[in-house]
Write a structure and sequence with these properties.
The chain contains one helix and five strands, in the order E-E-E-E-H-E. The chain has 92 residues and is mainly beta. Strand 4, helix 1 and strand 5 form a beta-alpha-beta unit.
Amino acid sequence: MSEAYPRLDQGFFHLTDNGWVRKDSHPYPPGRIETWKYEMECDSKDAKEQVCLTKVWSNPNTPMEHVASMHRQFGVPVHPAIDRNVKLECQV
């Protein structure tokens, strides 16, 4: 069976002390440091996935040094690849 196009996906990734966790509805993971909205679109089999990650929430009680350390350790929830473009945005 062939995959239907366009393919669309959306949800939320949460940065926790254990790394990135995808949870699309409440309750969100306890102890989360940030929440990023995830949107993906792929128009055809030969097209690259277009991913947009938008930071929509951050815990105001988390020191910036800890946030930076977590990003160094875990990176972003969806990495760019040869078949994927990733755009980062911030609403916070």
